[in-house]
């Protein structure tokens, strides 16, 4: 769990659900807001409570066998050739390349245009960024 920003009186510590906001699910993330409304990244991923209707990756506890592995690997299919419009209502989004977390397949085109309203900045945070073919 995220312990909060110590320099700000442990602001935004997790879990912080008051029992009224239906944050009955959890996610793992690095970006947490500060009192100034800005966001900063932590040095590692930490648990955060979240509304269960939020589209997100999932974590399941279940027995492991070959069929389960195939199910998990194919459960998140990236959408290519699309435009993401960031706004006050949707201030952030997640983009994954085809096959992630495996290597991006050779000779595949996946174009994603990211747009924001005038006066807003777009910040990209890469978990991993590889631009050329790598040997396995």
UniProtKB/TrEMBL annotation:
The keyword NAD does not apply. GO terms for cellular component: extracellular space. Residues 1-61 form the C-type lectin domain. One of its GO terms (molecular function) is serine-type endopeptidase activity. The keyword S-adenosyl-L-methionine does not apply. PROSITE patterns: C_TYPE_LECTIN_2, CUB. Residues 80-136 form the CUB domain. Gene3D superfamilies: Mannose-Binding Protein A, subunit A, Spermadhesin, CUB domain. Keywords: Disulfide bond. InterPro entries: C-type_lectin-like (IPR001304), C-type_lectin-like/link_sf (IPR016186), CTDL_fold (IPR016187), CUB_dom (IPR000859), Sperma_CUB_dom_sf (IPR035914). This is CUB domain-containing protein.
């Amino acid at each position: 769990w995220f312990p909060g920003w110590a320099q700000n009186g442990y602001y935004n510590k997790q879990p912080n659900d008051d029992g009224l906001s239906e944050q009955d699910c959890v996610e793992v993330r690095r970006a947490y807001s500060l009192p100034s409304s800005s966001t900063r990244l932590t040095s590692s991923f930490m648990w955060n409570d979240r509304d269960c209707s939020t589209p997100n990756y999932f974590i399941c506890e279940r027995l492991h066998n070959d069929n389960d592995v195939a199910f998990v690997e194919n459960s998140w299919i990236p959408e290519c050739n699309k435009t993401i419009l960031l706004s006050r209502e949707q201030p952030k989004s997640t983009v994954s390349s085809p096959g992630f977390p495996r290597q991006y397949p050779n000779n595949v085109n996946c174009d994603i245009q990211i747009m924001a309203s005038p006066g807003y900045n777009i910040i990209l945070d890469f978990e991993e960024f590889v631009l050329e073919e790598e040997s396995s």
